[in-house]
Amino acid sequence: MQQIPSGTVDLVFADPPFNISYPYDKYHDVLSDQEYLAWSERWTTEVHRILKPDGTFWLAIGDEYAAEMKVLLTHQIGFHLRSWVIWYYTFGVHCTKKFTRSHTHLFHLVKDPEHFTFNDSEIRVPSARQLVYRDKRANPQGRIPDNTWILRPQEIPSGFDDNQSVWYFARVCGTFRERAGWHGCQMPEQVLGRIIRTSSSAGEKVLDPFIGSGTTATAAKKLGRKFLGFDISEHYITHCLARLKNVKSGDPLDGSK
Ligand SMILES: C[S@@+](CC[C@H](N)C(=O)[O-])C[C@H]1O[C@@H](n2cnc3c(N)ncnc32)[C@H](O)[C@@H]1O
């Protein structure tokens, strides 16, 4: 990121290692608290520098450091928190002796609280007033989704299977068609789709400093954005480039069926 000129990126999405001993191929996910937070301060300072004045930063973070990262980003680095989204997912790793994990925190942060992109018309969903109560006062444009992201049937009418009563943004599980199969932390394209559509416009630049399986770049390409991504693992990058070759601007995001 140090090679990127200041104030040139519209949207950064980052899903960094959570410092939970996750077995990545190259990165060793075990730092002391102090080292992890010092490293987080370094790379998030760079994110702030490279973003345009009206740019947006979305951070995915686990329970372990969510509180510390919120304080770091808003009190030290200078971001403004617009939303603290909980992405509720299914297919979490089953835990013994504690409750099974089923959420990740998604922080929606902006540099300038007065000027930032928020394309609400891109992400509105039908309201219960419209669909359930048939209330004539309902806004025909629907409503902005809640800050707990559970994709319900009315939020994705084209993709909802009539036999299911609930449809969630599941984690990308091993049997899903979109699963690239070589990265254990692959995020669903639908989650990135909502973030990219909300916080950037066609032709703008999206950057992911921890690209992993390439979900952000894939969703950005399909949605007609420019994209940049980094990973410490050459192996992941090779796969990511192959994944990108198979998609083009205008392709539908995976995971809606
Ligand atoms: C949680 S994963 C990202 C998963 C990604 N969101 C996806 O959908 O596939 C974190 C990634 O950060 C990479 N990584 C760790 N340290 C890094 C560093 N210093 N610079 C760049 N990438 C790094 C790891 O190799 C891993 O692929």
Percent helix, as a range, is: 25-40%
Count of separate DSSP helical elements: 7
- The pLDDT mean sits at 88
For the largest beta-sheet, the strand count, sense and barrel status come to: 7 strands, mixed
Question: How would you sum up the global shape?
Answer: globular
Low-confidence stretches: 159-167
SSE-based structural type: alpha/beta
Ligands, deduplicated: S-adenosylmethionine
Give the tally of β-strands.
Answer: 7
CATH superfamily of the domain at 9-118 and 181-245: Vaccinia Virus protein VP39
CATH architecture of the domain at 9-118 and 181-245: 3-Layer(aba) Sandwich
β-strand percent reads 15-25%
Q: Please report the distance between the alpha carbons of the first and last residues.
A: 36 Å
Helices and strands, in N-to-C order?
EHEHEEHHEHEHEH
Strand order of the biggest β-sheet: 5-3-4-2-1-6-7
- Rounded to the nearest angstrom, the radius of gyration is 18 Å
Q: What's the CATH topology name of the domain at 9-118 and 181-245?
A: Rossmann fold
Q: CATH class of the domain at 9-118 and 181-245, anyone?
A: Alpha Beta
Q: What is the strand and helix layout of this fold?
A:
Blueprint: E1 9-14, H1 33-50, E2 51-61, H2 63-77, E3 80-88, E4 103-110, H3 120-123, H4 128-131, E5 148-149, H5 189-199, E6 205-208, H6 215-222, E7 226-229, H7 234-245
Parallel strand pairs: 1-2, 1-6, 3-5, 6-7
Antiparallel strand pairs: 2-4, 3-4
Helix pairs in contact: 1-2, 5-6
The chain binds S-adenosylmethionine.
